[in-house]
Every structure is written in structure tokens, then in C-alpha cells.
Sequence to fold (940 residues):
Amino acid sequence: MTMTVRPRERLLFEGADWDFATLQRIHDACEEIALGGLGLDVYPNQIEVITSEQMLDAYSSTGMPLFYRHWSFGKHFAHHETFYRRGMRDLAYEIVINSSPCISYLMEENTATMQTLVIAHAAFGHNHFFKNNYLFKLWTDAEGILDYLDFAKGYITRCEERYGETAVERTLDAAHALMSHGVHRYAGKTTIDLRQEEKREQERRAHEEQMFNDLWRTVPVGKAKKAGDIGLEKRRAALGLPQDNILYFLEKSAPRLQPWQREILRIVRHVAQYFHPQRQTKVMNEGTATFVHYQIMNRLHERGQISDGNFLEFLKSHANVVFQPNYDDRRFSGFNPYALGFAMMQDIERIVTKPTEEDRAWFPDIAGRGDAMGVLRDIWANYRDESFISQFLSPNLIRRLRLFHLYDDPEQTEGVLVSAIHNERGYLRIRRQLSREYDIGWTDPAIDIVDVDLAGDRRLLLQHIVMNGCYLQEGDTKLVLQHLADLWGYDVLLQEIDGSSTVAKEHTASPRKIVQ
Amino acid sequence: MHIVDRRLNPRGKSLENRQRFLRRMKGAVQQAVKRSLQNRNIRDVLDGGEISLPIDGMAEPSFRRGEGGIADHILPGNRAFVEGDIIPRPPGGKGGKPKDAGEGDGEDGFRFVLTREEFLDVFLDDLELPDLAKRRLAETEEETPFRAGYSVSGSPSNIAVGRTTKLAMMRRVALGRPRREEIEALKRQIEECEDEVNRLALEAKLKSLTEKSRRIPYIDPLDVRYRRFENEPKPVAKAVMFCLMDVSGSMSEHMKDLAKRFYLLLYLFLSKRYKKVEIVFIRHTDRAEEVDEETFFYGPATGGTLVSSALAAMRAIIAARFDPAEWNIYGAQASDGDNAHSDGNLTGQLLREILPLCQYFAYIEVGEEGGDSSVSRSPLWMLYDGIRSEPLPLSMRKVCRRSEIFPVFHDLFQKRDAQSKVTP
Fold:
């Protein structure tokens, strides 16, 4: 190994210590490579130095710098803290927020090398991904999110003052339980604009206050009109049924909710929607960031801006991050998104620059194109985990990771079938199956609101389409349905529909009392 | 790019959420705190610490798929399998996965670390010290100033003259300010001098010296020092807790355990109200001795029973070390109720002497596990019962089971109106 002697003054830092001037130098050096060398396109960066306690704080409120108050965040804080204190788990080196400016948190305990890694990873890798990936462009509003969260926090505090902490807490509990079913999965005609959202709420309230006339309270109520003759189809169409966004439906149509409760559902729904793209792009997002930091760190080292010793420190952390234990390893707990993502990005780079015959056959569009960064930037912008894996997981990588497919049918008493391995017959099946595991549409239970009998007992009817004979978990479902019934104000019935469209199982819940 | 240092931001952003969580879990936390008290030393309890909470009541449910059904898994690291192999399921396991995903952080025994304050708050939720009037006094603190070196600023009345002149002298010497005698001597020389040239030189020298002395003042504002004082908080009232226990042969381990629990509660309770609580352990058989905590609870001892010996020891210790004007005195006595018949009069007499010195005196009569806590006809009980009718700060209870300790304590110290006397 030849050690190149480099002029010392080119080093960004020496040893492990850093100060704010160092951070600035690091950032500028990374920026030069990221924008000039890699052609990335990022939001302006804001780097915040925080303590480990603040990192725990950020952890427990889903990484957001400001969030409304709720007991569950206290619970998560306590939970993380216990693990951290006992040394059972390290804190993340960084948290990065999809906002403009893009905020990256750096822990003060990190060494200078780690700060460089984090800046390259978060402030450039994630930042570029947030700004360019189509899902984030479609579903999140980076400019508006911080203001919106500020509004949400203030709004919920005002609600607590006006309606009492208990009432607000109950509404939030219920909304959180339904959060996973509070997102629009398919793009509609509207784009997300959280600033408008906030303004609209203010206008709504101003309008209500303006229109309020106490006299209306004294107007005698006539007999309710009969709605019996409205046709079933018409009724469902009027309510926008079937609807898979349960929170949205409740916000619009639950008859007994107060206006402020609807607004809270709306807030929780917006937060869920904001995080929805992150759930669908874990592998890609981390893969991008890891690939970017690997590129930047290598180039910094080549240019002599990082010493050999510090570069070795980086390589050690990097190796830990992208470590993928095998299935029979004690440390195995599923795929590591960093490892899988990084491996795929590197594999794509290889296909673009040094393709084999097999690659040319499998990836005629990109094999041998030569411009690895251009191809990767295009992929980062236009795919999510599911489509990314189904298009770009190569036979080469399947062999390298020695992937295999287990088919587990409870009917089959002898055991679990190895239905595909890393060979010619298996590549496609493994790729299809793995991509499916990253499709939330496949992994999350599909539950729709299908009908409500407004003329009769107002019972809400939901259906769960059972796939592969996998029913909902009994205990949790009961609790969630209870929350749902409380918000709806009337009975709720959830049917689990088997493949042969017969009702295999039913869950019901009645409202405890009006959530008030 | 923008760098922000957030480290100095207000800490404990999650504090409010943490409080909400505790409030929501109040019942469970109280239970857990009580449980955790059982195996601790008196002083350890004050450190707060870890408690486990049951997870029901804080579950955050969501729609999830349950077990069962057909499942597919893609796994890395195949070495030996070929397509079509059947891998037997591990016995007992329902899922077909060769190894379950190692989710290390199951939440079933949810651990929560309470701070000392939170711990005591939960524990002493609705208890109140008897004798409120004196307690208020006890909570105020007096501050006495003490000398803490010198400072460069302060009020004129605090000028430290000695230090100031010393510093001025040092500066004058260092800067070479001419001394007065030197100038006088020079003046004399000039007067006496006859040689014109020499005189001019001397006058020039005098001029430079006077200028120098004007430039370098005798006392410069830089020299001035002030005496600095700092205030030391000094509790007006301190508290001492006397733990009296009968360790004669008739006291079983169970009874001692009951007594320990009671002392522990009382100590906790007192230390919540007073900055400093002394504990005096007095154990007695037919003679009394002051011992440390370890010996008190676990040291073996046998002998007859003379309660008066313990009371006499307490009286002597009060006289020697704890002036009632300065100390709030609390007594807690645990006994199985046995006392030598001949000792009755002396005991009663001593108790009547001690009680007026005390804020509060609690007598706990401990019985065997299966005993009846409602009645007691022991000699000591009968004796104390007689004294109880007098307006003295004495209260008494009989306890047989561990589970009764907390309610009894609770009962003795529950919040009362400020006026009501402590005669439960």
C-alpha cells in the first residue's frame, strides 16, 4: 500500500474535534462534490447541532422539531431512553427532515469524521432524494410543513384550553389508531399546500363565528325528512364510497363530530400523509443517502481533504451501516434497507459502467450507458421501493446476497417450501416477491368503508379483503374499531371478506358515548 | 448553509409529554411504586428509580394482520437449499420462518425511570404532615451571609481597606512611583545646592518625579476591592425521626418487616418536607441502645422487654443532641405490645414527658400474619390508649399484614383541616 503524502493544509480537520468553522468547511467541501461532481439538486441546508437528550426528544415525536403534545410521545421517549441508558442501543447519528430548508440534526458527541459522514449522508443524500423523488413532490410540501406543524401545535393547545385535555386526548388517541388508514394512496387532482390548509381553517372559523346567531337555537325542529327512497348506489356515490381513507371519511361525514374534532382528524391525516412517501421509499431513500455519502467521502479522501486515519474511521462506520446478516445469523431481523439500497445502487453503477452479457440482456436500457450518476438520478426521481426492486434487482445481486424464497402454507404440515433460489429459474420470482414485500398496498391490510345506512341505524360498514387467509389481529382490531365507533357516533361493523367473497369473520363495536 | 446551535435550547421538550403519560398511567404507576418499595433500604427509596408498568392502558392499536395464513419470505444467505426443499418447522413455532425476526424491544415489561421527585409525588400523593402551623415555619429558610473572598465591585460600606491599600502599594512599587521622602530629599538638595548647573539638573529630576507621581496615583480605582458575601441557606427547623423498636424474642421477622415498612414510609414522608432529616435508631430489649440501620433491622438480639428503657434513651438523646426549639421531633415506635408489668408506670410517665416535645408520635403495634388488626389488649396498647385521651400528639394503630401498612400510614397522615388536632 502506498501512502500518498498530502499537503496538510488541504485537510478539512485533524483528529476528532470539530467546531462550527470546521462544520462550515466540511459542508462547503461536500457541497462542491455533491453539486459539481454528482450533479445533485438540493434544498438549502440548515444544520442543527443538538445533544443526545434532544436527539431522544426528536426520536419520540417522529423526528419532527415541533409537534403537538400527546402522552404517547412521552411513552416513546421513556422507551427509547431506557434502551439508550442501558447501552442496549445507540442513537441514530442523524435525523433529517423533509423541509425547505432541509434540516439535519447532528449530535454533539459525533467526531469530526462522523459529522462529515452525516452531512454527506443527510444534508446531500436525503436532501436530494426529498427534493427530487416523485412521491415526495406529489404528497409533501417541504416549504409548508414546519409552519403547518407550528399551526397544528398551536391549534391543539387552543383546543385543550377550550374543550379540556381529556376530550382532545381522546380524539387524538382515536385519530392515531386510524392513522395508518388516513392517507390517500392515489394522487387526486389537488396538490398539497399546507399553508393554504392553515389559512382555510382560519377562514372556516371566521365564517362560523360570523354566521353564528343564537336565535337559530330556538327555531323549532320539524320532523326529519325520510330518505328511504334514495337508492343504494346514489347514497354511496354521495358519500364517496367505497373509501379507503377512513380518517378523511370521518372528517367529512361523521355526523356527531364537533368542528374542532374534524380539524384534529385533519391534522393527523396531514401528518400521516406527509410521512406516507417515507414509508414507501425506505430502501431507496437510505440507499441513495448511503451511496451519496460513500461517493463524497471517497472523493474527499482522494483530494486529500480527509486523512487516512479519519477515512478508516469512516469505513468502519460505513461497514456497520451496510452490514446485512444472513437469515441464520442471530443478528438477523429482516433486510437492512441501508444494505439492500446501497448494494442496489452500486450494482446499478456497475451495470451502467461495466456490464456483463447477462446485464445487457436484463437491462438493455441502462447497461453500458456510461453515465452512472445520470441513470441513478433518474431512478431516484421516478421510482419507489416496490417498482425500484421489481425493475432493478439484478441476477448478479441476487446471487451475491444468495437470496431464496420460502413459501409457508399452514396446510402443508411437513414444513416450509423453498420455492425459489438464486438460479436462472428463481431470479424473476425472487425479484417479484421481494418487490411485493415493499408494496404497502400489499403489506398493509386493505380496509374500505363500503356503506353506511343513513336512513336506518346509521351503522358504518367496513370490509377487509383477506389475502392468503391472513385475518386481522383480533385484540388490536377490537380496540381500533372502538375508537372508530366513538368518532362515528354509531355502531360499526367490520367484515372480513375471504377470497370467495364470503364474509368469513365479523367485528362490531358500539360507541361508548359521544367523544366530547 | 446555515448552522444553528440548538444545544442550549430549553431542555426537556418531552417533559410535558412525559407528565401526560404519567398522569394517564397514574393508577398503574402508583401500584408499581408501592411494589418497588418492598425490597429497598430506606435511603435507597429516595433515589427514585426504575419501575415496570403493565402495557394495557397505554397500547396504541392499529389495524394489523394477525398470525396465520399463507406467508412468503425472501431471505438472504442461502447456502445449502435447492428449489423444492422442504424445511421442517421448528417444533412449537407456528410461523414457518426458520428464525423469528429478533425484535429485541418487546414492550410487555415496560420499564420507566421515575425521577426522585416524580417517585415521591406519586407516593405521597395525598398525604399531609400533622401540625400544619409549625410545618410552615419549618419550610422557610433563613439565609446567613458568610465571607467569600473579595470582588472588584460592591457597595462602599464593604470596601476592604487593607486589601485595597496592599494592592495600591504593589502597583506603586511595580510602576516605580517616587516616594514622598525621595521628593522631599530632592527638594532639600535643591535648596542646599549652590552650583547652578547641578541645580538645574536636580530641578529637572524633581519635575519628572512630580509628574510621575501625578501620573501614578496613590490609589487607583483598579486597586479597590470589596468584601464579598454569599448567602448560605440555613434551615430554621430540622427534623429528626426516632425509630424505636422492640427486638425482644417475641418479635418475629414478619413483625420487624412490618415495622421497617412503616419507618420507611415515615422517613420518605418527612424528607419530602424537610431538607434534612436525621434518623435515630433505638432498639431495645430490657435495655436500649442506639444502633445503625443494619443492626437495627437485622442484628440479632434477645432478652426481656422494658419499653421504658427505649423512651428513656430517646429522652436522653433529645436532651443531648436535639433541642426541641430547633428540631422538629418525630417518633415512631413499633412493638408487639409486650411490656413487663412492672414497667407500666415508668413508661407512661416517660411518654408524657416526651410527647410535648414531639411534633408527632406514632405507635404501631405489629401482630402475626393471621392476627386480627382491629383489637388489641396488649399491656402497652392499654397504657397508650389511656394517654391518648389527653391532648397529646399520639396516634396508634395495629397492623398484622403487609398490605395494611400503606392504608394505615395513609390513614394516619391523610390531609386534614388545618384546625383539627391529631387525635385519630
